[in-house]
Structure formats: C-alpha cells, structure tokens
Recover the amino acids of this structure.
C-alpha cells in the first residue's frame, strides 16, 4: 500500500481485524487509528512510518507485527466535539521494532501494555504530557532482536 498520508485509517471502528498486510511509504503513518475500540491488528509488515493510535482508542490488540524504521505512537487527541481523549488499555505483543529511534511514544496515553516485542537500538519508551494529562501506567517490555 502507498498513500500520501496514511496507508490504513481506522476511524471510530470496533471489532475489526487487519491481518497480513505490507505497508510502506505513507506520508505520516502506515496505520492511523482514532477513536477505535477492540480491534485486532496482527501479522502486518510496516515500514518507514509509525503505527499511530490517537484519541479514545482502547482495547485494541496489536500482535506479531513487524515495524521497521519507526515504532508505535499513542497520543491524546483534542476533538472539537469530544474534547481531549486519550488512548488507553491497548496491548502490543510479540512482533518487532527494528531500526527506530524510539519504540513507543506515549503522549497523554495511559495504561497501555507492550510485552515480548523484539527491538534493536531504540529507546524503549518516551512519555510526555498532552492535552492536560501525563502519560501514566504504560509498560514496555522489550527483548533484544537477534
């Protein structure tokens, strides 16, 4: 897939599965998710840009995805209707993040969990406040990529 901004945009969706895709070369994010709940994103190959999760996105499961060149970004979103909303209670497991400077960025996001993700050379996580909320309760457990 190639698109000027995002290769895949998941907006206000729930209970969807994205499985077995190859995405590279989008303008800003390979997968962009906003206000989405309980989706499964698995077995995808993502290159050059992040998987970006914003707003009231929760209960999403990312498993066995291979990212190269960038990691995950979970960020607050200031919505004109909803006000500030925050990604929370999402899970990332297995898979890999290779050749990225930062594996996980949490901006106002809270209670997200990443386990058993292979990584090389990246800062595990960067937490920052956004939209009036500190990033809290996020846990990242990386294992060295072979």
């Amino acid at each position: 897939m190639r698109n000027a901004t995002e290769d895949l945009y998941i907006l206000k969706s729930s209970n969807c599965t994205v499985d077995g895709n190859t995405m590279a070369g989008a303008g800003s994010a390979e997968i962009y998710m906003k206000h989405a709940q309980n989706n499964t994103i698995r077995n995808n190959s993502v290159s050059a840009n992040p998987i970006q999760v914003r707003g009231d996105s929760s209960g999403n499961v990312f498993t066995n995805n291979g990212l190269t060149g960038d990691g995950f970004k979970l960020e607050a979103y200031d919505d004109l209707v909803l006000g500030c909303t925050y990604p929370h209670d999402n899970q990332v497991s297995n898979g890999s993040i290779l050749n990225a400077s930062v594996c996980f960025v949490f901006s106002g996001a809270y209670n997200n969990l990443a386990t058993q993700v292979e990584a090389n050379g990246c800062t595990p996580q960067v937490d920052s406040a956004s939209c009036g909320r500190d990033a809290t309760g996020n846990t990242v457990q990386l294992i060295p990529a072979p």
In short: Residues 117 and 142 are 5 Å apart (CA to CA).
